Amino acid sequence: MAHTFARRLTAILFPERCVCCGCILPPLVDICAVCAPDVPRIEVPVCRRCGAMIDDCDCRAGQRYWTGLVAPFYYYGPMRNTLLRMKDEEDSQRMRFFARETARAVEREFSGVRFDAVVFVPSSKTSRRARGFEPVRRLAVALSKELSLPVWNVLYKQRETPAQKTLSAAERLTNLTGAFALKKNVDVRERTLLLVDDTVTTGSTLSECAHTLRLAGATAVYAAAACRNPPRRYKEENETNENVEKNKSDRKQSTGRMGRKSAVR
Ligand SMILES: [Zn+2]
Ligand SMILES: [Zn+2]
After folding, report:
1. Which of 54, 138, 156, 195 has the greatest number of beta carbons closer than 10 A?
2. Is residue 74 within 8 Å of 231, Cβ to Cβ?
3. pTM value?
């Protein structure tokens, strides 16, 4: 009872906010009713290999070194903004939210797997300095608490690489080769690991980290991220929306030229 009281008091003093729009919410709710329908949640059944919904599976997209991948959301719409804000504003509520949602997805899809530890994709020195903290590392720590697993800091980025989004598809394939390495005096041999990143876009970063861990002797490397790249249908939807908007503005312009009469007709 004291616990419930304390929780309610905390909720009054520090109310939870919608992780998408920031409006104030009752305790234990993360997303408001207005934002909820637009949240691109990855619903079951999902493909455990590429982390997309079964109908969106893009496993054929290339060689991957992870054993399986899971994410609670597509990196799209409100979740894209929410994740960016988590990273830019060092927001602990959004961090906990993504950790909880990711943990739920891991428990659901990889329930039979016995993980030894959570590991994470390291950030480069430059981005660590620029941001002042490592969002992925924090997410991994929060996720490890949810899953009652230790978190191991085993990887480092041994050379700076241009951001994947600035490169062509062909350049992306080789950009990260050999970029990550295992820290000295760590041993991942015969371990089953859960590798964490905040987003999966091309999948190259996670795959390269998983490769490094496998080469170091890890038995299996499963991957988890807060958001995964959206399937093609989202892009098409986006284009359709843009066309609708364009048609709307075209109509407005032509109505303007033709005058009120034609607009009424
Ligand atoms: Zn909202
Ligand atoms: Zn798939």
Report:
1. 195
2. yes
3. 0.84
